[in-house]
Design brief:
Layout: H1 2-23, E1 31-34, E2 37-41, E3 48-55, E4 59-66, E5 71-75, E6 97-102, E7 108-112, H2 120-124
Antiparallel strand pairs: 1-2, 2-5, 3-4, 3-6, 6-7
């Protein structure tokens, strides 16, 4: 009886030890899009100033700064092109998202949001482009 309890405890401890590295969460991406909302998280120890976020290299939204550990959120409708056109998230596909800012020491900061695997071809898998 004691041997069974001991062996179960050892198995449970081994399972927890093996699962712990797998459960370790990756740090959140600095730029995320959920629905209509774009979020920028500054997880660094430095303030970002003169922050511009670009969608498709054409539409832009800006903020004066994002403090260390701070967050900036903007609806996709707020992104505007040079001649006043607004980004229409219902009709346009997002192909590029990047952030440009200035660090306290004057160096430029550029962060690009990885968009691999978000297109129609990735959604449909290998069915796209295959001939019957």
């Amino acid at each position: 009886m004691i041997d069974r309890v001991f062996s179960r405890a050892v198995l449970a401890a081994a399972a927890i030890a093996l699962a712990s590295p797998a459960c370790a969460s990756k740090p959140p991406e600095p730029i995320t899009i959920e629905g209509r909302l774009l979020t920028v998280d500054n997880r660094t120890s430095q303030a970002w100033s003169h922050v511009e976020v670009w969608v498709n290299r054409y539409y832009r939204v800006a903020t004066a700064s994002i403090p260390p550990g701070g967050r900036f959120q903007a609806p996709l409708d707020a992104f505007v092109a040079g001649f006043g056109q607004r980004f229409d998230f219902r009709r346009a596909q997002i192909t590029d998202v990047r952030l440009d800012a200035i660090l306290p020491d004057g160096k430029p900061l550029e962060i690009r949001m990885p968009l691999e695997g978000r297109g129609l071809a990735q959604t449909l898998g290998n069915a796209v482009g295959r001939k019957p």
